[in-house]
Here is the input.
Amino acid sequence: LTMGGAFARRTWLAALVLGSILTVDLVRANKPWILYWDYTQKYATNPILDTLRKKPHEGRVVAPSFLVDPRALPPEKRIAQYFPSIYGVEWVQHHFQFYNIQSIDVAQDPRPPADKQAYSAAMFPKPGRYWELTNTKYVIGMAGFLDALNSQMDKGRNRFRIAERFDVVPKPGIANPSGLDDLTAVPAADGAMALFEFTGELPRAKFFTNWQVITNGDAALKTLGDDAFDPSSTVIVSDPIPAPATTNSAPANAEIVSYNPRRIEVKVNAPAPGVLLLNDRFDKDWQATSDRQSLPILRCNFIMRGVQLPAGEHTVVFEFRPSLTGLKVSLYAISLAGVLTVLLIVIRQKDAEAETGASSVKPA
Here is the structure.
């Protein structure tokens, strides 16, 4: 009709009719794919999540699938077999983001950087050491795995304990759960599942007066995974800094004053020169200052970051300051395009005026 000229004098009507057809068609086509959630019900918390979201920077959480064996569940608690899916789909992707709970389990990481791949490949075969190095304070699994955690993962040091047992049950008001978001966790004295507390994890911030410089990445990973290496007393530094003068200094106190995604403040009372380890991933866009003096960021324990400090009391601030080079190039390009556009308009106007002037002059 439009091409035939039916709306030649009513173009607004053509736009209205076409827009209405498109809108109705899009609603019809998308209706089967639009899901509606009651967010208060979907993001409802529970006592286990409440424990994990208290000062989340003090310890991460992990729930390895090998700590859930459905064959060991009694019939009345068989619903707990769905916990790995609940954890991976609902908790990691939704609840942890909503409540700012920190975990070493990542929801989506399709193209991890090379250093992370190397670290994961070296540490995954030794989960106990991996959890120790990554400040993983909580481990979730079936309660019956406590002895195995202490004997196999922790080499008999017995640093795992049950912080709370729980069961997987339908959320309040839901008689017949139809999806993972209809299930939750409730404390139970005889619960099939357990929130294990690992007391051997490195704190998020720790000051070391003893460090070992290993600039070769493969050698650093080998040392970190060695059972003879004690990560609680020595930190591996990948940058060429001077060796420690003494290894017998008294322990230092490193206290996190504030912890935000882009700014972290740590107070340190150092009895001797040393290295402050912050158990967060190394990135070149992080910058550090101590007492308003800039400090170079060190790569520690292969993938974490830290700074070297002299003896005394210090306030260290880590700030995320990404490079603005890309933004500056874009702004320069946009400015240049604007200038060229203005020049083009001015030149065309002058050419038009010249042509008008030339046409208005009649030959004698």
Notes: The two ends are 56 Å apart (CA to CA).
